[in-house]
Amino acid sequence: METITITINGSPYTVEKGKQLLGVLRDMDIHVPALCYHPDFGPEENCRLCLVEVNGKITTSCNAVTTEGMVVQTNTEEILKLRKTNAELLIANYEGTNENFAKTLLKEISCSAGVCETSTMKPRKTTRRKFHFGDILDYDLKKCVDCRNCIKACQAQGVCAVTIKNYGFKEEITKRDNRFCVFCGQCLAHCPSGAISTNPTMYNNVVELLSRKESDSSAGKKPVMVAQIAPAVRAAIGEAFGLPYGTVATEQLTEALKKLGFDYVFDTAVAADLTTVEEAKELVHRIQTKEKLPMFTSCCPGWVRYLGVYFPKLLPHLTTVHSPQMIMGGLIKWHFAAKKGIPKEQIHVVSIMPCLAKKWEANRPEFTIDGIKRVDSVLTTVEIAKLIKEKNIDIAKLKGVPMDDPLGSPTGAGVIFGASGGVMVAALRSAFFLLTGSNPEILEFKEIKALDGYKTMTVQAPNLSLRVAAIDGLGNVGKIITKLKDFDYIEVMACRGGCIGGGGQPVPVNDDIRKKRAASLFSIDQTATIRFAHDNKSVKALYEDFLTTDEIIHKICHYKI
Amino acid sequence: MKQQSPEALLQKIADAKLIGRGGSGYSTAIKWKEMYDKHHPLLYVAVNGSEGEPGTRKDGYILKEHLTQLLEGLLATYTIFPQTKTIYLYLRKDYFETYEKIITAELKKSYPTLPVVVFKEPGGYLCGENTVLINAIEGRRLEPRRKPPYISEMGLFGQPTLVNNVETFYQVGQIANDMYDDTRLYSLTGDIPHTGVFIASTTITVAELLKQTDNEIPNSFVQLGGGASGTYVSEDEFAKTPANRGTGAVIVYDNTKHTLMELLHDKFSFLINENCGKCTPCREGLFRLHEMVKTNTWDETRATDIAAVLSKTSFCGLGLGAGAALTSLLEKKSRIWKQ
Predict the structure, then answer these.
(1) Around Cβ B291, how many Cβ atoms within 10 Å?
(2) C-beta atoms surrounding A458 within 10 Å
(3) In whole angstroms, what is the distance from residue B128 CA to residue B111 CA?
(4) A194: left (phi > 0), else alpha (psi -120 to 50), else beta?
(5) Given an 8 Å threshold on Cβ–Cβ distance, is B276 in contact with A90?
(6) In angstroms, rounded to a whole number, what is the distance separating the alpha carbons of residues B254 and B191?
(7) A32: distance to nearest CA of chain B, Å?
(8) Is B306 in Cβ contact with A93 (below 8 Å)?
(9) How far is Cα A211 from Cα B223, in angstroms, rounded to an integer?
(10) Which residues of chain A have a CB within 8 Å of the CB of B276?
(11) Residues of A with CB below 8 A from B305's CB?
(12) In chain A, what residues touch B280 (CB-CB under 8 Å)?
């Protein structure tokens, strides 16, 4: 690393040479607003808010790099004025109330450029259309401020389902022909203006059921509300309530859900342990029979949809084991309900997920059992935070309560499902056991826990070596898809960082935030007393009480392609 | 063209002090020498005949009247850069339709070795911007690219690319044949009796140019460089202002026939439909300026603010030029309309 001296606002600083100026300034806590620049992508240079003066010339700092002796001014009167004018022009676009405006990242950004209220200029997009991707994502172009982050997010995923059409003030985001959305929601997670939102059908449904539960006195008709919480939600929900990044708020969330009227709250991570055990069994079987290798993980529905849409011939490579969400749905309705004597039809299973594609997964008709849905509604982390806030509950102030038995507690392996590489680590621990009869000494396979693209490694068991890869983000799938023969087992997470960086998680998001969320999940694993899915007592009990035949195991845990 | 070495040709261009005729006023010799010294194994040349700037028609004039000299210029270019894979002769639609067959026939007949492809521009003012030209030829969305990488390093199909205006290549042809006499082509339009393209000295003043072309009219003012990006000059400045600016367009107005609002309306109506939409000053700023004129809510303070972001913070030359033009018009308006 070569260091150089530059002058910022009259003071000398030693900085790294050739670094992006905007990043350097932000690292020093020197405030420069930026709307279209997102650290997940390169500079776009559209918004013209991150203006600074470099050697007397006004330029955008997102595309400037540090050079020896450069003289930077960030807050001259002229720069502040130019930023403010551009912010005013951008905000004039925003078609919405001041109240809604206040909730957007756009407001935060424009306010930092000196414009805190919606404009007096007439919004120019009042007749802009809306469009939808399935019943998952809604685009409302009235609120779009043309930052194009959605396009970049979709491109980074290798999906490219949105593009831009028309020119000048008529420019607008549109669906791209012959490309299909995989519902990863990364466009939503990178939209600063609220133009992209989650389809509210499931949210409204849950709100209605909860209120009916409150008002309806006839016990027989009351819906029994059962929630399940995905691993990654616990590491991010706190952000929506002002808690530091990476705060684990499992029990606080459980308490909040109970206050909202949920009768039972279960941990999806327990089902993840079951997924792991089944998936490890299948992996061992495929390795022994040399069939359909490499095996792909299937717990990420964005990935499953991506594979189905863009590489349908590879679908047989997917493990036939259901995702933890679907297994938990099955366990709740077919096992827990029976134990409690509640009719399946009366139960409404609500998954709290970091993910939009989980809504699609829950609605897949081929995943029903005897025509009954395993999971009835899926709410994202952002949606449940909104619901909790609307009931004036502050998670930050709750002490927390434990989740419900009898489905028990997860192992560390189940919790790390929420972070990239976690599913693979969990499955390898159990596969190692199945292959060798003893647990491996190394529990973490550190080499594959990474946040940059994809990682590969070879796991040595006494009589064979397993070649594995973990792909972090759909945009990296292309790097592996041409070398499938080199691997036995491949984990794919659609979103960068895995579920902790999911499209349903709170914004803003960037690598630092993702790392903090992932670190929380890995620390839960490291401090867990049980770290092998196959050692989970609840899982063992399930195999003894409920999953006693191949038929029932397949019904709950596997699907046919 | 007589046989000449690349070095000799480059030296002649340097001696002629040739300035590019596309509008940005950069030294052709410096630009070409830099390219030459890098000894790229492969490069592309694009001849920019987009000529979208309102009031400019010199490139069309060259295609019509001096095609041979233009092709001589391309031959000289190819002599300097024999590693050129393709020379794209990038023409606006109407030029392409009118001249494509003639050019192709002439190439076949007299310049069979030149790797020229006559390319039909998709259309629009912005297509003349050098990086938009690259995107247009590659079939991408018509908007400017981020720099760096500069197109001289990574342009067409990822290769180094030399882009110059039609007139620049024409003048290189003149230089190669020792016929260059420090003149350029001026396009004269507006409220004058003799519109057209005139060849005159690069140092001629506005007053002299109007006199030589018999175009002196009372109560006039001019816009120099082009209808969208050109800056305004009031009559009292004619004698000391060189007409050599931008693309060489000189638009002459009779101030009794035009009002400020009408001029602004024409300008913004053109610009809101011709910008790409990428950056805020252009997309939003031009829209708001147009809106203010159209709805009779002109607010000079706001207009000045928007002109400032256009001319100082736009992504590409379109916004910068539009901003400079507006700023100059607002500054000059009391001198243009004296009463």
Answers:
(1) 18
(2) 11
(3) 26
(4) left
(5) no
(6) 6
(7) 15
(8) no
(9) 69
(10) 167-168, 171
(11) 81, 85
(12) 46-49, 86, 89-90
Residue A190 corresponds to which tokens in the numbers above?
């990178």
Determine, for residues A169 and B272 on separate chains, whether the beta-carbon distance falls below 8 Å.
Answer: yes
What's the 3-state SS for A197-250? EECCHHHHHHHHHHHHHHHCCCCCCCCEEEEEECHHHHCCHHHHHCCCCCCCCH
**Cis preceding-peptide flag for A231 (omega within 30 of 0):** no
User: What does the alpha-carbon distance between residue A317 and residue A480 come to, in Å, rounded to a whole number?
Assistant: 14
Number of Cβ atoms within 10 Å of the Cβ of A147: 25
Start-to-end C-alpha separation, chain B: 56
User: What residue type is assigned to position B256 of the chain?
Assistant: T
Contact B279 A89 (CB under 8 A): no
| Single-letter code of the amino acid located at A23 | G
> How many A-B residue pairs are in contact by the CB < 8 A criterion?
86
Q: Is there a contact between B128 and B147 (Cβ–Cβ < 8 Å)?
A: no
| Nearest CA among A391, A360, A328, A39 for reference residue A198 | A360
**Burial class of A171 by CB neighbour count within 10 A (0 to 12, 13 to 18, 19+):** buried
Bridge partners of residue A469, in order along the sequence:
A456, A490
Rounded distance between C-alpha atoms, residue B246 and residue B199, angstroms: 15
- Contact between A63 and B309 using a beta-carbon 8 Å cutoff: no
- The count of C-alpha atoms lying within 13 angstroms of the C-alpha of B117, restricted to the half-sphere facing its C-beta, is 12
Contact between chains at B309 and A168 (C-beta distance less than 8 A): no
DSSP 8-state assignment for residue B144 = P
The answer, yes or no, to whether residue A100 has pLDDT greater than 90, is no
What's the pLDDT tens digit per position in A529-561? Answer: 888 888 888 899 999 999 999 999 999 999 875
Q: What is the pLDDT, as a whole number, of residue A482?
A: 87
Show Cβ contacts of residue B59 under 8 Å, excluding neighbours closer than 6 positions: B49, B51, B95, B165, B166, B167
Determine the angle formed by the axes of helices B300-313 and B287-294, rounding to 10 degrees.
160
Point out the residue among A48, A92, A93 whose CB comes nearest to the CB of B309. A48
Over the stretch B142-178, which tens digit does the pLDDT of each residue have? 999 998 899 999 999 999 999 999 999 999 999 999 9
Residue with token string 């011709």 = B274
Q: The whole model's pTM is what?
A: 0.93
Distance, C-alpha B28 to centroid of its chain = 14
Distance from CA of A457 to the nearest CA of B (A): 35
Q: Do residue B283 and residue A169 have CB atoms under 8 angstroms apart? A: yes
The distance of Cα A532 from the centroid of its chain, to the nearest Å, equals: 25
> How far apart are the C-alpha atoms of A127 and A142, rounded to whole Å?
7
State the Rg of chain A over Cα: 25
Q: What is the pLDDT of residue A451?
A: 47
Burial of A110 (0-12, 13-18, 19+ CB in 10 A): buried
Query: Which strands, in side-by-side order, build the sheet including B43-49?
Result: B116-120, B84-91, B43-49, B161-165
User: Which residue, chain included where needed, has tokens 């791209």?
Assistant: A176
First to last CA, chain A: 51
In this complex, which of A47, A85, A164 lies closest to B306 when CB atoms are compared?
Answer: A85
pLDDT surpassing 60 at residue A119: yes
Cβ A547 vs Cβ A553: under 8 Å: yes
Four-CA torsion A125, A129, A132, A135, nearest 10 degrees:
100
Chain A residue nearest residue B303, CA to CA = A85
Cβ pair A45:B277 closer than 8 A:
no
Chain A residues whose C-beta sits inside 8 Å of any chain B C-beta: 43, 45-49, 51, 58, 60, 63, 81-82, 85-86, 89-90, 92-93, 121-122, 124, 146, 164, 166-171
For A449-474, give the DSSP string: --SSSEEEEEEEETTEEEEEEEEESG
How close B147 gets to chain A, by Cα (Å)? 9
Residue B255 near residue B220 (C-beta atoms within 8 A): yes
* DSSP element (H, E) containing A350: strand A347-353
Query: Looking up tokens 């809306």, which residue turns up?
Result: A130
The two tokens of residue A195 are 């133009």
d(CA A383, CA A201): 11
User: Which value does ipTM take for this structure?
Assistant: 0.94
